[in-house]
Amino acid sequence: MFKPLDAGIPATLGALVLVTSTLAQADTIRFAHVDPDDWQSSKKGAAAHMFKSVVESETEHSVDIYPAASLGDENELIQQAMDGTTQVVMVSGAMSQICPAAGVLDIPYMFETPLVAWRVLDGDFGDALAEHCLDQTGLRTLGYGETGVRHFTNSEREIRTPEDMSGLKLRVQDIPLYVEMVEGLGAEPTPIAWSELPTALSTGVVDGQENPVGTIYNNNLHELQDYLTLDGHIYAADFLVINDAYFSSLSEADREVIERAGVLAGMMGRSIQQFTTAQGLKAVQEEGMQVYSPTPDELAQFREQAQPPVIDWLEADLGDEAEWIQRLQDAVAEATE
């Protein structure tokens, strides 16, 4: 996953000297994310505390954690990391805004299970993507976490096949890939801000939405929705990244600790996400939500309808970088075998 230490550093020598000299003085590492701080329920919170514990126990550096978007949203955190004002950040969707190739991970129905996604991200594909994004952004990927597997909910009817989605108005994030996916499945995508979602569901502006189970339960969306379909249309990864100029300014011993801390933090985040998913799934069923798991044949129908329009959009959006779609498909096939 890691490139030679001179990779990804700004090309202008003056800028390099300025950034490195400034960051090298930072004995305190700032680690920011947008999730709650509680390590027992928050995947990014858990990852941050794992990183802090390892780094502080094995180096002279301290780690200050800034959770719950206290330093800004994901796009702002990414910019801070690139500028060097915050050394380490953990983000999900914002990564594809600065490294478009990362967007291929959001192709629907790409990963049969999180285990397949982990094999891909922890293998050659994940290493190559990290190297590519380092070249483009100056941010070194220390580890991959998990922000959740996304599923559909609605208040109208049980969804077993794409036919059941016809005519449903579904809230999606204002991201073209999500719009293409829902349209491909025959529903009506309706971009709505997260803060407005509960009102939109309760007033009937939309019939349903899509999110990880933990998010659905922890935000009481199950109280506004009757049906949950565990189709797992998108596996959402977290990227734990560090400003590479700062990383390169550290001693070799400190770099080794930070690299290991990043890998462990990603694993910790995945574990907590899986834990909260299991808890949430049990809870929503106990509280009356009807949960359906599509059969392999039914999932194949979802895949056949959703993937082509999304891949077509990605190919046009990525241009010369569209090769990353095939690279991911090959890596998934190998991991699945």
TrEMBL record:
Coiled coil: none annotated. InterPro entries: DctP_fam, TRAP_DctP, TRAP_DctP_sf. Residues 1-26 form the signal peptide. One of its GO terms (cellular component) is outer membrane-bounded periplasmic space. It comes from the Bacteria. It holds the Pfam family DctP. GO terms for biological process: transmembrane transport. Keywords: Receptor, Signal, Transport. PANTHER family: C4-DICARBOXYLATE-BINDING PROTEIN DCTB (PTHR33376:SF7), PTHR33376. Belongs to the bacterial solute-binding protein 7 family. This is Tripartite ATP-independent transporter solute receptor, DctP family. It comes from Halomonas korlensis. The lineage of its organism: Bacteria, Pseudomonadati, Pseudomonadota, Gammaproteobacteria, Oceanospirillales.
